[in-house]
Structure to design on (232 residues):
């Protein structure tokens, strides 16, 4: 089984009054090359999702990949996934942490301020179908179909986009929270973040067209995550 830390655009927790430790977010973003040179193609999870929903055998929810199986406790799940789906952004996941000491610990770490202590997801998978690079500038592998075995909250993501941009209880973001996200997760400078807040995304594009220092990949990341946020 191989492992890949993949983009998680936003992680949301259930409202404080909820009796469950439910959360949702994106476990993968399509089209983004990770630190190992792999990229996931839209549709790669289709069979896993279908088999999970038809058979009842879902990918496991482990912590830190089960610490690579060093002990039986490490391989004990910390919760269950309740829904998996694909959209234009990536693999959307919903799950519930178990009311155990380990599940409660993860829930607490995800909610910490001023930033979450656990802010990434990573998958364990078996590659089924992929396309290897034919040109130097292409990804090492384009994963067209994978069998998803487990999804883990992790501390150190291998993918630059695999960071939880915010951990929420209820309600929307404040302007300060959104500005912090623009700088920490989208990679903008403070002045660029202020442009987005005061003038909108089109103004940021105008800065880039005029020869600003905003990189193409930062703009693409910002657009992708803003799309994900507005869909919620």
């Amino acid at each position: 089984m191989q492992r890949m830390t993949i983009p998680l655009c936003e992680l949301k927790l259930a409202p404080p009054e909820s009796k469950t430790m439910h959360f949702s977010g994106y476990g993968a973003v399509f089209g983004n090359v990770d630190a190992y040179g792999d990229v996931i193609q839209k549709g790669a999870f289709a069979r896993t999702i279908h088999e999970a929903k038809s058979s009842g055998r879902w990918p496991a929810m482990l912590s830190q990949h089960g610490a690579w199986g060093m002990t039986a406790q490490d391989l004990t799940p910390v919760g269950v996934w309740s829904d998996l789906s694909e959209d234009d952004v990536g693999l959307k996941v919903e799950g519930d942490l178990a009311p155990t000491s380990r599940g409660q610990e993860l829930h607490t770490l995800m909610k910490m301020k001023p930033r979450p202590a656990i802010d990434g997801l990573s998958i364990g998978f078996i590659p089924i179908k992929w396309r290897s690079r034919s040109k130097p500038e292409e990804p090492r592998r384009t994963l067209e179909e994978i069998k998803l075995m487990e999804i883990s909250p992790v501390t150190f993501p291998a993918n630059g986009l695999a960071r939880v941009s915010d951990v929420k209880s209820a309600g929307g973001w404040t302007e300060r929270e959104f500005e912090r996200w623009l700088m920490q997760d989208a990679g903008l400078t403070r002045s660029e973040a202020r442009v987005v807040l005061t003038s909108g995304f089109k103004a940021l594009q105008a800065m880039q067209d005029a020869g600003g220092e905003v990189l193409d990949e930062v703009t693409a990341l910002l657009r992708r995550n803003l799309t994900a946020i507005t869909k919620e």
Remarks:
- Strands lie at 2-6, 11-13, 21-29, 38-40, 60-61, 79-86, 90-97, 120-132, 141-154, 167-168.
- The first strand starts at residue 2 and ends at 6.
- Confidence is low (pLDDT under 50) at residues 159-173, 228-232.
